[in-house]
Design a protein that fits this description.
Strand content: 15-25%
Structural class: alpha+beta
Largest sheet: 6 strands, antiparallel
Number of helices: 13
Shape: elongated
Order of helices and strands: HHEEHEHEEHHEHEEEHHEEEEEEHHHHE
Oligomer: single chain
Length: 527
Amino acid sequence: MNPAHVRKVAGSEPLRSAAAHTPAAPVATAATPSPVAPAVPPAPVAVSAPALPERGSPEHSLAVQDRLASWVCDLSLLHELTERLARTALLDDTLREVVQAGATLVGAQRGLIALSPADGLGPDTTVGLGLGHADLGALQTVDFGRGPVDADEAVHADLRHGERPDARQREVAAQLGLGAAYGLALAANGTGFSPRVGESSTSGAGSSTVPGVDGLPAFADSSPDLNDLSTGIVDTSPGVSRLGSVVWFYDEAAEPTDRQRRLTGLYLRFAGEHIARGLELARVRRASAELAAETLPARLPRVPGVRMAVRHSTGPLGGGDWYDALPLPEGSLGLAVGGVTGAGPGAVAAMARLRASLRAYAVMEGEDPVAVLSDLELLLRLTEPARSATALFGHVGAPQTPGGRRVTLAGAGHCPPLLVGDHRCEFVETSLSAPLNMLSCWEAPSVELHVRAGESLVLYTDGLLHRTGEPVDRAFAQVHAAAQSAPRTVREDPALLADHLLHAVLPGGLDATGGEEDLVLLVARFD
């Protein structure tokens, strides 16, 4: 592995490391002047700073200035790393940034962070730095002391020497080319998340805490907040809840200095709080996605002579666009798409109620789509008078002789479907009515057409049009042009046709709305 290029920071030097067993991710700005992973184990470094010269002497002033400059350098580095961390939004990105920044602070090239909240609500995930999937799997079978993933305190483990390693640990360390590990546990309390930074070392020194910043106890004693900042030690109350842990690996026998440990502890204090926010957001998004998924069909039904494919994308707030494909008596089929106004959990719940009601009306009187939408509009008016919705319902009859099917469609303010075949590509006009619950009495005509074998019916929501960022007429023209230009092999497969339409209308995944609009694209091909 090529050493990462690190720019100099005031009061620090670039880190040097031995070649790693696996490629590592780019490393952030260096934190300390100490070399990393030397070929020969480093000699013990004195923990305490040399005594200051006598007060009032020029040497005393220079020494104080040097230490203050080093202190400012450390704070600037922490500010830079925490600023980068604050820009991450997704939980996985946050975890990658934490393990990468921590590797810079402790002078390592590889590491992993294991998220396993103690409340058991998940998500449980592991993110590695400079490690492959096989490496992560091997490391999870090793107990580093009490395990880097499940440690209750900071642990430094020599993976090749000393009394602590066992046979399995030495085996994996030799396999991956690892020499030592340093880990910290992450914990949370009621007001925020803080790392539990209790030190234990295999060198026989025992537990220890770090004194003031570089031998400046006068500054530390004069301000409790400053002392807390200088040591990185966090007071953990009985209400602390485990989040997970993070561990970094050295290629040779090495150990972070006290200064590196202090900076790492301070960084993890902020990182733990940021991880907590990302964790809560990930849980909310997961619950919303699961709720939306449960309100839509788990899979499309299998109907003889009909092949279907659907593409569905939900906005970040959770929207009310939906689709359905319902087998009906005598070999017929009901197809529906629609959307309710609003976004968020309320819109998702309203969409679920509307879809369930439409399924019931389709079973009772599916051959008359106008009656189905009329009943749906009456229910919406009585139960949710402040909400409106668009809908399109189509009844696909049984196969006819010599071929093809009769399709009856009715729409309520919804986008017209598109009929695609070898000899025609045209919109079916079904939008000559207002959305449901917009007028005193909803009324619209139905449209009947004969679909030949080999043709496809494309149903979609207005999110497909809005995501183009173009006016509605131009968006319709783009959809029509994309369907008309589809090759014959693409038109024969509904999944390929759906993907072709999306890629042609939204080239390269380009989305003018940033994904805020829900999108549904349902393709039914008749064989």
